[in-house]
Design a protein that fits this description.
The chain is of the alpha+beta class. It is 36% helix and 20% strand. The radius of gyration is 23 Å and the shape is globular.
Amino acid sequence: MKNDTFSAQQLSIITGSLLGDGSITRQKYGDSAFVKNQCIAHRAYLDWHSQQFSSMSCAIKTYSTITEGKIYYRNVFRVKAHPFFSTLRQEWYPNGEKVVPFNLILDPLTLAIWYFDDGSNVLSARRISLATYCFSKSNVQFLSDLMLTNFGIKCYTNKKNVLIVHTESYKSMIDLVRPYMLWSCFNHKISYRDSLASPSCKNDIDKVISLYQAGESVELIANKMKVSRASIYNQLQKNRKKVDESLIGFALNNSSGIRGVCFDKERNKWLAYGKINGKNVKIGRFDTREEAGTAVQTVPAFVS
């Protein structure tokens, strides 16, 4: 079917989304519609989508689901039903299950949207992966071939049928998607470093210790210094007399950016840790990261 409605940029966004978190939904009556889900933290990303489709998009709505007793919230973006989406539905879901059409056009914007939707960047290993396990092995191989043909990016698949960008193409991939990165929630996806080197000189080691004692997490320090998390952890272990040894293991898993604060996924709360009378204790669980951070500061061991 000839497309007289959507621009080339809009088509790239739709295609990238269908490779990632987007879908073409079948309506009870009439034509199909384009829908995309994202977590609450990625609202700015969906707002941008809405702007790209202007009057054709519906208001973004927030929904909640309960899985194994836990409440999860998500934002849903939707482009109104259109005959073109019915055609796409036939191409992407020929037998009711999503496939990769072999007439797929993979351009830089399509790749970027796909990556921001479903990609991950493991900075410590200089590894990028794209969640392709929902597609068949032949579909994933087709995508791998397109990545090499179109962009010179080498990929391989692991045992879980996930597409992995080869280490030698790591920088090329980051450089290719970086111009399209407009949302702070995805800063981690374009972080990059040249090697897995560890801090070596005394000034670097002193900086690691200083940042850690100031409350930075191991992950944030690793990103700032462009080295692996493991190397930061090792330096803290080697210099344990200069830091609070009891917190090193905890900091390795700290994703909040505040020393002594982490997110408790089981209870959907921010958990604050502290040290009182020489013993590690749980200070409490809080609704927000800021409340947990404030609580941490009331414990003497954490006060600068």
